[in-house]
Amino acid sequence: MTSRREALKKLLNSAMVVGGGGLVWGNIAKASQSSPVTLRPPGAIEENKFIQACIKCGKCVEACPYDTLKLATIGETSALGTPYFEPRKVPCYLCTNYPCTEACPSGALDLKELQKESEDKSEDKSEEINIENARMGLAVIHKESCIAFGGVQCDACYRACPLMGKAIVLDKEVNEFTQKHANLKPVVNSDYCTGCGICEQVCVVEKAAIFILPVELATGNVGDHYIRSWKENDESKLKNQKLIEEGKDTDVESAIDYLNSDEELFE
Ligand code: SF4
Ligand code: SF4
Ligand code: SF4
Fold first, then answer.
1. What is the Cα–Cα distance from 193 to 196, expressed in whole angstroms?
2. Which domain holds residue 203?
3. Is residue 8 part of a domain?
4. Closest Cα to residue 142, out of 191, 93, 212?
5. 95 and 85 share a domain?
6. Is 18 contained in some domain?
7. Do 116 and 129 share a structural domain?
8. Is the CB of 55 under 6 A from ligand 2?
9. What is the pLDDT of residue 247?
10. What does pTM read for this prediction?
11. pLDDT tens digits, residue range 119-163?
12. Which ligand is nearest the CA of 161, by number?
């Protein structure tokens, strides 16, 4: 007959197995979710769809000639088995023949994502496929640790950028301290930055002062309420406006007339 002491020991052991199992499965479940800072290969579709579409075959990783891409393993922050890259270690070198994107059999990497989006989002994308249209992320500069902002001459990121003069430009400013020299401060243009991370890799300070974040994390959104008429295509946002007062909808033409006149829109 099992003693009460043995029974208690068994119970404790089984509780530990269940507890341990819970821990392991908890880790696996966590690993299958995406980290908000994961950077995907060029041509990756929207992150949630990407995780569902990617069959974790590793063909993109095999196709990359620079060993940029890795498949996430347990313990790493990216969803288990999915490809990602860490620019400070190995950036994406923007292969003009996009071998990683082309190798993907599942649609998780899609050549259509390398076509420039037309201004009118309702139109089909019909432009030429070009690796420079990749948007793997967006370079962000931490001014306090960028030595160029601190008055030291450094243009390492600017010179390394494959879209030099477009994705990064240098902003000249008189050095406040000497009043003679110019500070050349790097500024990223989100219209052109591919998120390749070459700038992050070459940054000379201990922890890169320029680094890549996923576009959603690195950007804000003005919304449809502020329309800057001096900015190209900003007025197209008017068509998204629906002015409602006392349950009455007002069309776009009335809204434009209102903006261009002193008259009250609703009388
Ligand atoms: S574009 Fe080239 S360097 Fe960049 S991830 Fe794809 S294969 Fe690798
Ligand atoms: S080739 Fe496509 S499906 Fe295969 S691991 Fe890469 S992204 Fe996923
Ligand atoms: S700014 Fe950096 S991430 Fe953007 S295209 Fe240039 S090198 Fe690549």
1. 8
2. 137-220
3. no
4. 212
5. yes
6. no
7. yes
8. yes
9. 54
10. 0.76
11. 555 555 567 999 999 999 999 999 999 999 988 999 999 999 999
12. 3
